What does this fold into?
Amino acid sequence: MSGIARKHRTVSLKKRGQALVRQLEEQDRRAAEERTRQMDELYGPKGEKGGRCNRTACQRPLKGSSNWSMRNFMVEGGRLYYCDPCAEDFTAWDKRSGDPIRCEIIEADRVDP
Ligand SMILES: [Zn+2]
It folds into this structure.
């Protein structure tokens, strides 16, 4: 194979690889959207009262449990909701760092176990 043919083949393989990566990323994005849609349908939206805990790594359903909240500075008067264990974690981190406590419970949102 000539140098030019080899170079052409390498570029062609690289382009096919890049196209495959884009295709897989698109599949992942669609699968993630579908999971979110199903989670929203089953447990309610993430971060909303009675929906799912707003912490991405948690997303525990909040229905029937205390709904702790933080002010959502992106939305006037808005709040984002969290489960008991995540609220405890945030409060522990805030106390450790000396920052103001972010999670609070509005009495109407408290559910005793
Ligand atoms: Zn949580």
